[in-house]
TrEMBL record:
SUPFAM superfamilies linked: GroES-like (SSF50129), NAD(P)-binding Rossmann-fold domains (SSF51735)
Full protein name: NADP-dependent oxidoreductase
EC top class, as a word: oxidoreductase
Organism for this UniProt entry: Rufibacter glacialis
UniProt key word ATP-binding: no
Keyword set, alphabetical order: Oxidoreductase
Enzyme Commission (EC) number: 1.-.-.-
Lineage: Bacteria, Pseudomonadati, Bacteroidota, Cytophagia, Cytophagales
Length: 330
């Protein structure tokens, strides 16, 4: 089998040299274990944090050890009662063309209910993130204005649609005209601003949010967030989900500088990690699954073909190569 290890820790923006391919021979299966072949491997922005030697909510990747993350895989050999050859499972697995795992650490998934890849996207970590961040922290009410940064990504695409289901005006920020058009035509966004080409982000945002901003779902941080916060209403809720604009920073940024407005508008700012909500995952899965089945939630994926494309797919997250969830099909 082949695996991809962290060759070196990135300084600033990661590149191909931070990854190395290695041939491995897997041991024989022990009782309770299964042999797996990946179908879809997820690449996610949070993995950038794990490439640093820094303490966080997940331990850092080790130099010389394989990267790992969300994988949907097929069982090809089993020494467990719980799983049989041919079953499809979700797990935290290494970036490798074959892996051995304990059956009890894997979750069997039903591919009749939804495509296997959806368990890494709308019915997986990104979908759950959108659901809890928006509904639990944001608490959007009918008629309110919800702004979403990183709007065309795996999480953002779901946030906007749930906000529409709740009767809100939804405004997105995304990095290309193609993404802006997709979100408005296919995903019900009322307005989308291309933050890369706008002459004046704050002016455009103000025009798109004539009644101000009640809920801000932040996937990005930086100047986009400063502009949104300058437009918040009384009792606005600011959900800090991601800060991808800062993940490659080598120096900590100054700021934030908008706190006087947070004070005078009595706004709430709250960060969260989706795993905080672990006990409530079944409720969210049920609701997201129902919305998908009813056609109320749509989804898009950018699926890159080939295991060897994993580093490229991951790097592409930082230049906006994806619409919806970025995945590698093995
Ligand atoms: P996405 O699918 O949204 O992919 C990342 C996107 O970010 C890119 O497509 C790109 O789109 C945009 N982007 C990249 N760099 C910048 C930048 N400098 N400024 C503005 N936009 C940028 O990823 P996910 O949906 O998986 O994740 C979205 C965010 O949510 C991430 O920050 C992630 O870390 C966070 N997250 C947090 C979780 C939690 O538990 N709190 C769980 C899951 C994700 P564009 O073309 O628009 O620039």
């Amino acid at each position: 089998a082949t695996q991809i290890v962290l060759a070196s820790r990135p300084k600033g923006t990661p590149n191909q040299e931070n990854f190395r391919f290695e041939n491995i021979t897997l041991p024989t299966l022990q009782a309770g274990e299964v042999r797996l072949e990946p179908l879809y491997i997820s690449v996610d922005p949070y993995m950038r944090g794990r490439m640093n030697d820094a303490k966080s909510y997940t331990p850092p990747f080790q130099v010389g050890a394989p990267l790992e993350g969300g994988v949907v895989a097929k069982v090809v050999e089993s020494k467990s009662e719980a799983l049989a050859s041919g079953d499809v499972v979700l797990g935290a697995l290494p970036w490798a063309t074959q892996a051995i795992a304990e059956a009890k650490k894997l979750q069997k998934i039903d591919t009749n209910l939804a495509p296997a890849s959806y368990y890494l996207g709308i019915l997986g970590m990104p979908g759950l993130t959108a659901y809890f961040g928006l509904l639990d922290i944001g608490q959007p009410k009918e008629g309110e204005t919800v702004v979403v940064s990183g709007a065309a990504g795996a999480v953002g695409m779901v946030v906007g649609q749930i906000a529409k289901l709740k009767g809100c005006r939804v405004v997105g920020l995304a990095g290309s005209d193609e993404k802006a058009e997709l979100l408005q035509k296919e995903f019900g966004y009322d307005a989308v601003i291309n933050y890369k080409t706008t002459q004046n982000l704050r002016t455009d945002l103000k025009a798109a949010c004539p009644n101000g901003v009640d809920v801000y779902f932040d996937n990005v941080g930086g100047e986009i967030t400063d502009a949104v916060i300058s437009l918040i209403n009384f009792h606005a809720r600011l959900i800090i989900c991601g800060q991808i604009a800062h993940y490659n920073d080598q120096q900590p940024q100054q700021g934030p500088r908008f706190l006087p407005l947070v004070l005078t508008r009595s706004a709430l700012i709250k960060g969260f990690i989706v795993s905080n909500y672990h006990a409530r995952f079944p409720e969210a899965m049920q609701q997201l699954g129902t919305w998908v089945k009813e056609g109320k939630l749509k989804y898009q994926e950018t699926i890159i073909d080939g295991f060897e494309q994993l580093p490229e797919a991951f790097l592409g997250l930082f230049t906006g190569q994806n619409q919806g969830k970025m995945l590698v099909k093995v």
